[in-house]
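Q: Predict the bound structure with coenzyme A.
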Amino acid sequence: MKKIIKNLKFVMEPASIAIVGASATTNKIGNVLVRNFVDGKFKGKLYPINPKYKEILGLKCYPALSAVPGKVECVVIATPAKTVPSIMKECVKKKVGGVIIITSGFEEIGRHDLAKEIRQLAEKNDIPIIGPNCLGIFNPSSKMDTIFLPMYKLGRPGAGNIAFVTQSGAVGSTVTDLAAHYGVGMSKFVSYGNATVIDESDVLEYLTEDEETEIIVLYIEGVADGRRFYETIKKANKKKPVLVLKGGKGKGGQAAAMSHTGNIAGSYLAYQAAFKQAKVTEAEGLHELFEFVKIFNQPKPKGNRVAIVTNGGGVGILTTDGVEKETNLLLAEFSEATKKKISSFMPAYGNIGNPLDLVADSGVDAYSKALDILMNAPEVDILVIVTLLQTPPMDERIIHVLTKASADRRKPIATISIGGAYTEAYRKILESNGVPNYGSPLGAIKAISKLVTYADYYKHLKKTSE
Ligand code: COA
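A: Predicted complex:
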């Protein structure tokens, strides 16, 4: 790994941060940045830099980077574009580890001259730059947070194993907010903007080796070096699953991408072919990306045989239709031994088949027994559990049953609950307990199909490397 990529550790988990352009004016970007570090309880040293102030939010403010005593590992810049090259020179003098440039107004508006100046300084001195024109880094475990959106407006997820890498700050921030809302944990968030120095391939390379990251999620519009991107994404996906969403697929989107970060979005067909060849999982939209992420957090299935458990006949049938539509999935055929165990608790009018319809008057105990049996049934690889929460015997104990089934990590599970506000409240609790929950049968089944495809690929890789 090149030194400049290794040095990304100084922006991912710095022990000391200087914020150039820190401001005392409430709601200015330079003010929110400082506030978020203070409110986020950043454990390292924090140095606001602005010659106008002696103090910002109770912290001593320094007139320039050179005035800071001791080492500064990471510098965050939020001053107008024309000032950035000279600040970058100060960073070189101060021997900082890495830089995050929030500022817009570089390649995306044709200021290639400014971009070139900072690139040369960074590359010559092995200083990784994230940005310009980005939100930068969020790392829940080191409390590194340069997302300049106030915490009361945009939630921050807790620590987890999913890294989210995004060319767009807006896509990044909304996904982050959703992750926080549903309790999905993140290892690292990287919004890299114009990719003037550090691009998506560099970040991918770093995260492939990052021990906290088990799943890499990527939103891209255009990449600078297609060949390298293909090789890097392929290598990363061999070690941990990479899920990708491509923006700028058509002509209008490509033109918008150009003025967004100054990168050429390129032919979508070429990207699509590369994703297929590298065996990465592609999502069609933001919602779907999030749906995929949830199931990839489950253990990899040993096979493709799906058992469906439901308390609603119709939703069970729709789920079955979904399984039959996906060519890489099979409906599990229950063995006689499994059927016999199920019959011990089923009402006489229940139907022992797959889907297993526990009927509407079955309660939490029936689910608990059914899941226990199917978790132990060798003919079942994956469990899809429809829980329609509106039925009279359903109560909050179902959360415990589903959470236990998920936490056991013996087979992947997906749950489906459809409904209004009451159901939504349950869905949120399930998600924050790490139980993937879907609001539609087809959404759940498509996500499972992607997980099975990846698990097959992973199995194949292991076999060929043995
Ligand atoms: N050293 C230290 N502080 C400096 C400085 C320097 N060399 N030059 C300027 N400053 C200070 C200013 O005094 C000001 O502080 P103040 O508000 O207390 O006066 C602060 O830095 C910001 O400078 P200002 O001229 O007021 O600029 P701004 O706040 O209007 O805009 C940016 C600065 C970075 C926010 C703006 O240029 C920008 O790029 N906005 C878009 C950001 C964005 O959307 N990024 C992409 C997200 S996906």
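A: The CA atoms of residues 56 and 289 lie 39 Å apart.
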